[in-house]
Every structure is written in structure tokens, then in C-alpha cells.
Amino acid sequence: MSRIRLLSLLVLLLPLSACSFENETGIDQDIDLMQTDRYAADLAKREAAAREVAFQSRNGTLPLMPLLYWGKYTYYPSAGIGCIVTVTEKDLNREEIGTYDIDVCGNDEH
Length: 110
Fold this sequence. Notes:
The chain is an alpha+beta fold. It has three helices and five strands, in the order αββααβββ. It has one domain. The chain has a three-stranded antiparallel sheet.
């Protein structure tokens, strides 16, 4: 068996999560498919929390999650459109890490 063919067979046998690639900066990084699933789940939780903040702002209720008290999420009703609430998510350094425009009038599924 030729050496090239043997190497390509070995590459096929390696699990994808064990492969690595070199990005534009020349830094070697591992590809982890589980990370993308975790990121998607984390993003869904963050969006759900932002949605809850928006609906609580519409209803005038107190935040139910301690993170809201710590200033992780802030909200601003939209000036011209009363149905849209902009929710801003901040990290521990109070830097913005996400902004969500949420329809609180029922036109969007809750």
C-alpha cells in the first residue's frame, strides 16, 4: 500500500473531534463539535432570559432571576414602537455581550 494511501486511511479513522486546524493567525486550534452544541444551548438560555426580562418589563413585575438584580440584563422600551423592548446583556465587567429586540405584544411566540 502506498504511503499516501495509508495516510489518508489513517485520517479517515481519526475521530473528527480529535482533528485540529491552523487558522489565519497560525495558532493551532482543536475542532470540537460538542462545543457548538453547548454554545447553541447556552445561547438559547441567554435568549430565554432576555425574553423573560422583556415580558417582566411589560408587565411591571419584579425580576424573578437574581442575575437581573446584579445588572446582567437591562431593558429599554422602544420609543416609537411600544411592542418592542430592547434587552441588553452585560458581562461581569459591564461590557455589552448581547442585545435582543423582543416583541412583547404577542406577535412573537413566548
